Amino acid sequence: MKYVIVLGDGMADRPLEELQGMTPLEYAKTPNMDKLAAEGEIGMVHTIPDGMSPGSDTANLSVLGYDPKIYYSGRSPLEALSIGVDMKPTDVSLRCNIVTLSEEEEKYEDKKILDHSSGEISTEDAAVLLDAVRKELETDSYKFYVGTSYRHLLIWDQGKILELTPPHDVLGQTIGQYLPSDDMLSAMMKKSYDILKGHPINIERKKQGLNPANSCWFWGAGTRPALSSFQEKTGLKGAMVSAVDLLKGIAVGASMKNIFVEGANGGLHTNYEGKAKAAVDILTKENYDFVYVHVEAPDEMGHQGSVEKKVKAIEFLDERVIAPIKAGLEQSGEEFRMLVMPDHPTPISIRTHTGDDVPYLLYDSRKTQSQTWKYNEREAAQSGNRIAKGCEMINYLIEK
Q1: Which of 43, 44, 48 is nearest to 62 (CA)?
Q2: Residue 75 dihedral angles phi and psi, to the nearest 5°
Q3: Is residue 326 part of a domain?
Q4: DSSP reduced 3-state for 35
């Protein structure tokens, strides 16, 4: 038996007037997911433990079977694992986004966050910008590391855990009240703006009508994580397919194999087909039991507030990931169970995460049936099926 989780990050949403009262998932054309729903099981699952922040970190840990209340030590330490940073017990890691701030205000505190991803900037351009920051700001106590796209890392020697605000939570808002309480971190963010605003890459980006990547933003502080082995927990030899350092880091911590897919970038125009092929190959050619296929695009489009692009991201997931994985496993003759779900909602209306229940779809190639369900939030809630603890979902998938 083979097991697959296809995770559409932030795919769940709320009804929208622009979509005649439907959610993006309900409105999108998803014939493959709907067919699986009709032949399988749908329901709702609560992935974020009460009282915890509804992030992709806590949510994806939960979906993989790691109770965030036990295993979570911060978001950026998981990304540090992916990047290959060997954190000391006294280190604190922080996520270092390169964001777009408004430029017309004179004081840094009066600026607004316009884009948490700087227009999904390429890793290559972001690395050049981060290097410019590093040359002026890096010390023995503060070390910068390049990640993917706009997502990078700061390691603070002998640091402290601070309450820091994710930039996607304050899009369009004046930043003064959200700056770090630590004077050095706040000063570094301000200085990064001075370094980046006139950088040749940003001058060229503005000429092309792109958002400038003009400031660092620190958040997600945490200490070195300690995850138990996924194989020891489940008995399954597992692999991860993701373009995002957070998920790659979780895989490293869980001793899962990370699969590199060329052209996978965490954006709307990622290599969907490459991810699907990698998932099928690892299960059918390399004797792995489990694969986790993570697609970031629905979440990014939710943060951007784009209804059209979020619908398109969901349709791409259906057509270019789920359909070929199902076809590939069927062709191989392998029996399989596939779970499709979001980690958390990223509602278009608020452009950030919530801790609401999310819809799941569970398909078993051995037990097909004929129902009228389609896969969306409304019908999943109507099914009456609910799993109260997201970290128990993995055992439900593998029938443990």
Answers
A1: 48
A2: -75, -50
A3: yes
A4: helix
- The tokens for 228 are 């138990």
Distance CA 56, CA 71 (A): 14
Interval 230-246: pLDDT, tens: 999 999 999 999 999 99
Contact 221, 92 (CB under 8 A): yes
With the C-alpha atoms ordered 354, 178, 221, 240, is the resulting torsion angle positive or negative? positive
Fill in the DSSP letter of residue 212: P
pTM of the shown model = 0.84
Residues 142 and 242 in one domain: no
Residues 377 and 265 both lie in one domain: yes
Q: Is 10 helix (H, G, I), strand (E, B) or coil?
A: coil
Task: Provide the β-strand partners of residue 219.
Answer: 95
Residue 32's nearest CA partner among 2, 52, 6, 14 is 6
Question: Which of 195, 222, 249 is the C-terminal boundary of a domain?
Answer: 222
d(CA 376, CA 27): 9
∠ at Cα 340 (240, 242), nearest 5°?
25
Find the domain containing 155 and state its range: 83-222
Are 7 and 29 in the same domain? yes
Q: What is the rounded distance in angstroms from the CA atom of residue 234 to the CA atom of residue 269?
A: 33
262 alpha carbon, distance to own chain's centre: 18
Written as six digits, the tokens of 96 are 């270092």
Q: Of the residues 169, 204, 222, which one is the last residue of a structural domain?
A: 222
* pLDDT for 89: 87
- To which residue do tokens 């997201």 refer? 390
Structure token pair of residue 298: 């629905």
Angle between helices 200-207 and 123-137 in degrees, nearest 10? 140
pLDDT band at 400 (very low <50, low <70, confident <90, very high): confident
Rounded to the nearest 10 degrees, how much is the dihedral formed by the CA atoms of 114, 119, 125, 130? 30
